[in-house]
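Much of what follows relies on a compact textual record of a protein's fold. A record is reproduced here so that you can trace the correspondence yourselves:

. . .
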Amino acid sequence: MDISDWPRPSDEELPDMYEDIDEMVHTAENELREHFEITESPEERIQFGEATSEDFLNAIDANHKAMIALFQKVAGLPDREFERQYGVRGIGSRFRDRKSSLKDVDDAQAFADALAELMPESLSLETVLYTFYKSWEGDQRRFYRMRYESEFLEFLNEEGYAAWKGNSLPGEPDIVIPETEPYEVIGEIRVIQQKDKQKRFKEFRTEAHEAHENFDDINFVVVANLGRQYLESHGRETVRSEITKDGTSEIDAVFFHDERDDFIEQLEDWGVSTEAQQSLSDLE
């Protein structure tokens, strides 16, 4: 099935996410065609009413990750709901990434039995796959944004800066350098959809103000991932000025997703302590 024209609102900022989602959807389609009867009348419809528990179990066993996720979404049985109704804990979290077969696993059989009972007699193949696509997109967007934050912190640490996420600090900033007080850099990282950009830009300015109130002598930085095409069409410096409100905010520097080297140069210009410098300082 051609899914290239399905909406991808975060494609510019998170292209890797859509590559992974496309692969999941195509995998699910292949397994549905392999394990269930599909008729054309005129649209393709999956005849779940003709399927047995064994058919559902075989489909799940063929690809744990894609098929458990799909059936949980379509049947409305996330882990918590399945546990509430059937007393089986963590059907998705326990089995989606399992490498060994599920065919002799009682809890997997219980899930297959539930699907055989609950799934409608017939559903449009496109409807099933699109429902899976959109729900998986919603789940994965948060995961990929968190992964982007983690990768950026890893990059800073590889460059010698003790950067960490300040969950225990006021405002819970995404970037804190160094590891201990006095802190020198506080910052936020965002993957931003165009429809949310004004809201996110305002959040940056508010967070900068609060950071300067909470911490003495810090520089507040923003890392904004808006995608290459948006920056090219609107102009980097125009967007940068829009975020800082023409330099009137308390944001000290703004960097985009492809300006990591510029970020390091700015830390050097500010004289931000590296881990090596801190270690020498501790020895003195």
Q: What stands out?
A: The CA atoms of residues 18 and 260 lie 23 Å apart.
